[in-house]
């Protein structure tokens, strides 16, 4: 019996192959899009950092104060005392990123960041070793554990175990282990791991400072530990051990698997909710498409269903062929979707620059993972039940006599469910269109807004990784003097950080004589910084360039800091911090020292240093006269290529470098555009099915009207009027939804446009035009049909 049903189902699908193909392609595109977004949500948002064996018991110690938002940094000496005095804590490790070093073996060297950890690291976090013993690898003070890429770069096919490597030419280390490949969805991707004991031996102050919080402390709690009880004990811990100037800090515990989202900020939540909503949108549209087209095609079988009912067939026997047909289409659509995903995923990952989080080479293994297979089987089941049971139920509700005559009496206007599905479909499509139109406007605003300085004539050269820092420093001084005498160079500045990279270093300052502290971002600049960047002074003076400002510890602040401190002027004002007193000599206009879409304006303090650290690397920033850029840059590159560096140095326009800061906005815009296109395409497929449904139901009516003298235009209006009415209803519902969704997205940016109402109207008109074009194809075809054919049976 089942074999017969299967043959009938295949024959029916072949007889209606055009509609079957529309269903399969629509499902394939929809399933590929949904699974792609599902993988992103699952790997980046749901299961980030969940691969650790004890993920449910891992917590990060974080601190905050009235002037400092909660962050994952804590003081380094806290962990040993916490492990000793708090039984709820089973184990823990500190992560200290203190150095970026050149690590060399024979004639090979690589520049890598060294992460210093405690001996409990491998008992807390799950980073298996390919070579070495995790129990003893960190017991050697000079031991190093390398990532697989680092080991390959240094040693090639040679066994690295026990090999001696040079670190920055001034010390050595011994390779004690090599890590297994680290999952992409990990907050930490260490290149080189070294024991905290080595850092403590070389720089004791780093791990004994109870004020500066530049350490990440990860705690492994016991299975029966109470988070609430442990948190209540932390204020007493601060009072007993913290520096007197840090007594206002509050400690709390953050689940380790929430660290990534917390660091990403509001944009992370927007992306997570947005992607989850996108899955729901596409699933609804695909389901509506399948249901609409399947029901439209099933109308031709009303007589068949009526005959089966008349001879006593059960509802299950009536529904089985429909379920089989729907199951075959859903299965083929899923297979097509997986094939499309396999082809698209690597390109998607490459284009959206998320290869460091999603592995494009592992898409097939991800696609066949148990949870993804379960996801796909769930989709197939839902689609099969919807597109199989509803047409069967719909046809069994027809009167047997009229159905045997081939007359399905229920009209579109009497089917609120069908019209409701159409409204839902185009509501979602209109919201997506609105999002795709608003994103570019916000992007252009971010790029074009006044940042407080002029990028147009700024060029930079990165000077770092010197083999002989002393020789490099002397040559850089010679170059700086030459640039000062060059009439084509308006000004130049040497600093250890490039504009856009500032703001990670913060400290609390108070007005002299006051206990009220204000958290400020810190920058260290030379006397030419303001002139080079074009940052304006609004009060006081800039740095003089002599040693007096450095000796007196003179500082500048921005306008936001002035307001935060409650000052009306800086006359006689001085700031105090735990490391001294700082006279304020000037106020600069607010400028965006952090060039990021999510970076707002915050209090800022500028310190003076006319002798930047050559060992840490420098940036030479030049303000060049228009038309002279190529000549000056060629001369500068000739000089810097003579410096004793480990890699080739380059010059670049600062505006090009800043454009990279907006990659997330650019890619989000492109992502939204593609997904909007997919949803609109799928919605049009559903609307096409609706037009087929309408035309088939009203074929004889159209024939009679044409015989009675109706024009093609009149018939066309008849067929499109009801559909466009419901599309218009969908647009009216979608506009406030789109306003709310996109307004929430805009609020994630400190700087954003006023909501563009005109774009909402434009998206609504666009949705109506798309619907009109889609439905017109089938309507024109029906209006042009010869009435003799449609009335032949009568």
What tags apply to this protein structure?
single chain; 794 residues; alpha+beta; six-stranded mixed barrel; 22 strands; elongated
Topology:
Elements: H1 2-15, H2 17-46, E1 58-65, E2 68-71, H3 78-85, E3 89-105, E4 108-117, H4 121-124, E5 129-131, E6 143-146, H5 148-155, E7 164-167, E8 171-179, E9 192-195, H6 196-202, E10 216-221, H7 227-241, E11 250-255, H8 259-264, H9 266-298, H10 302-310, H11 315-351, H12 363-367, H13 370-396, H14 400-404, H15 416-448, E12 458-463, H16 469-484, E13 489-495, E14 506-511, E15 517-525, H17 529-533, E16 537-540, H18 547-552, E17 555-558, H19 559-565, E18 574-577, E19 580-588, E20 604-608, E21 618-624, H20 629-640, E22 651-653, H21 654-659, H22 663-697, H23 699-707, H24 712-746, H25 757-783, H26 787-790
Parallel strand pairs: 4-9, 6-8, 15-20, 17-19
Antiparallel strand pairs: 1-2, 1-10, 1-11, 3-4, 3-7, 3-10, 5-8, 6-9, 7-8, 12-21, 12-22, 13-21, 14-15, 14-18, 16-19, 17-20, 18-19
Helix pairs in contact: 1-2, 1-11, 2-9, 2-11, 2-13, 2-22, 9-13, 9-15, 9-22, 11-13, 15-22, 15-24, 15-25, 22-25, 24-25
What would you note in describing this structure?
The protein is of the alpha+beta class and 794 residues long. Helix content is 51%, strand content 18%. The strands form 3 sheets. The protein has a 6-stranded mixed barrel. Strands 14-15-20-17-19-18 form a 6-stranded mixed barrel. Strands 13-21-12-22 form a 4-stranded antiparallel beta sheet. Strand 3 and strand 4 form a beta hairpin. The longest helix is centred in the middle third of the chain and has 37 residues.
């Amino acid at each position: 019996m089942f074999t017969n049903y299967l043959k009938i189902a295949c024959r029916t699908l072949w007889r209606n192959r055009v509609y079957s193909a529309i269903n399969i392609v629509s499902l394939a595109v929809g399933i590929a899009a949904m699974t792609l977004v599902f993988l992103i949500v699952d790997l980046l948002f749901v299961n980030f950092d969940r691969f650790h064996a004890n993920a449910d018991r891992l917590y990060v110690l974080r601190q905050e104060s009235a002037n400092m938002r909660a962050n994952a940094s804590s003081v380094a000496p806290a962990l040993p005392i916490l492990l000793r005095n708090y039984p709820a804590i089973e184990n823990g490790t500190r992560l200290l990123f203190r150095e970026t070093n050149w690590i060399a073996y024979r004639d090979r060297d690589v520049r890598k960041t060294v992460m210093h950890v405690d001996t409990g690291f491998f008992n807390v976090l799950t980073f298996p070793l390919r070579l070495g013993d995790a129990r003893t690898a960190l017991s050697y003070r000079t031991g190093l554990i390398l990532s697989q890429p680092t080991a390959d770069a240094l040693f090639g096919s040679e066994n690295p175990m026990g090999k001696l490597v040079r670190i920055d030419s001034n010390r050595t280390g011994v390779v004690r282990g090599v890590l297994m490949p680290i999952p992409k969805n990990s907050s930490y991707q260490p290149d080189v791991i070294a024991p905290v004991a080595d850092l403590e031996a070389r720089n004791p102050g780093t791990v004994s400072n109870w004020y500066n919080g530049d350490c990440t402390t990860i705690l492994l709690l016991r299975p029966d530990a109470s988070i609430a009880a442990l948190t209540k004990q932390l204020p007493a811990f601060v009072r007993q051990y913290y520096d007197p100037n840090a007594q206002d800090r509050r400690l709390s515990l953050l689940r380790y698997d929430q660290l990534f989202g917390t660091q990403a900020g509001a944009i992370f939540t927007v992306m997570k909710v947005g992607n989850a909503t996108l899955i729901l949108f596409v699933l609804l549209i695909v389901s509506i498409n399948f249901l609409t087209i399947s029901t439209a095609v099933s109308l031709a079988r009303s007589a068949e269903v009526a005959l089966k009912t008349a001879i006593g067939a059960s509802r299950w026997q009536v529904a089985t062929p429909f379920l089989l047909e729907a199951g075959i289409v859903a299965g083929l659509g899923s297979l097509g979707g997986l094939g499309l995903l396999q082809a698209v995923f690597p390109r998607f990952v490459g284009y959206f620059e998320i290869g460091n989080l999603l592995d494009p080479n592992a898409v097939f293994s991800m696609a066949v993972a148990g949870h993804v297979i379960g996801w796909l089987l769930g989709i197939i089941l839902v689609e099969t039940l919807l597109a199989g049971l509803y047409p069967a139920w719909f046809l069994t509700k027809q009167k047997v006599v009229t159905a045997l005559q081939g007359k399905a009496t229920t009209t579109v206007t009497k089917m609120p469910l069908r019209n409701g599905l159409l409204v839902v479909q185009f509501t979602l499509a209109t919201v997506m269109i609105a999002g795709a139109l608003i994103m570019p406007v916000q992007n252009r605003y971010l790029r074009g807004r006044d940042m407080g300085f002029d990028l147009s004539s700024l060029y930079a050269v990165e000077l770092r990784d010197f083999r002989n820092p002393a020789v490099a420093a002397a040559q850089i001084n010679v170059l700086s003097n030459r640039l000062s005498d060059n009439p084509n160079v308006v000004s130049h500045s040497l600093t250890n950080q490039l504009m856009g990279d500032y703001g990670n270093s913060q400290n609390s300052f108070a007005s002299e004589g006051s206990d009220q502290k204000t958290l400020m971002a810190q920058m260290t600049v030379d006397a030419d910084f303001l002139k080079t960047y074009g940052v304006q002074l609004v009060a006081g003076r800039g740095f003089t360039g002599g040693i007096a400002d450095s000796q007196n510890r003179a500082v500048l602040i921005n306008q936001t800091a002035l307001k935060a401190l409650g000052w009306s002027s800086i006359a006689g004002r001085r700031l105090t911090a735990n490391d001294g007193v700082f006279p304020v000599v000037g106020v600069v206009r607010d400028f965006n020292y952090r060039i990021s879409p999510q970076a707002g304006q915050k209090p800022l303090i500028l310190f003076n240093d006319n002798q930047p650290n050559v060992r840490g690397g420098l940036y030479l920033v030049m303000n060049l006269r228009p038309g002279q850029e190529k000549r000056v840059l060629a001369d500068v590159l000739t000089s810097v290529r003579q410096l004793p560096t480990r890699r080739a140095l380059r010059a670049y326009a600062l505006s090009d470098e800043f454009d990279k800061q907006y990659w997330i906005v650019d890619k989000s815009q492109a992502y939204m555009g593609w997904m909007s296109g997919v949803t609109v395409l799928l919605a049009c497929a559903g609307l096409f099915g609706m037009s087929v449904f309408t035309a088939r139901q009203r074929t004889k009516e159209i024939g009679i009207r044409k015989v009675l003298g109706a024009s093609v235009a009149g018939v066309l209006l008849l067929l499109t009027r009801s559909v466009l009415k419901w599309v218009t209803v969908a647009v009216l519902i979608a506009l406030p939804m789109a306003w709310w969704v996109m307004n929430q997205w805009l609020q994630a940016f400190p700087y954003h446009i006023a909501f563009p109402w005109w774009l909402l109207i434009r998206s609504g008109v666009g949705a109506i035009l798309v619907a009109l074009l889609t439905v017109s194809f089938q309507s024109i075809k029906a209006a042009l049909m010869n009435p003799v054919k449609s009335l032949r049976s009568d």
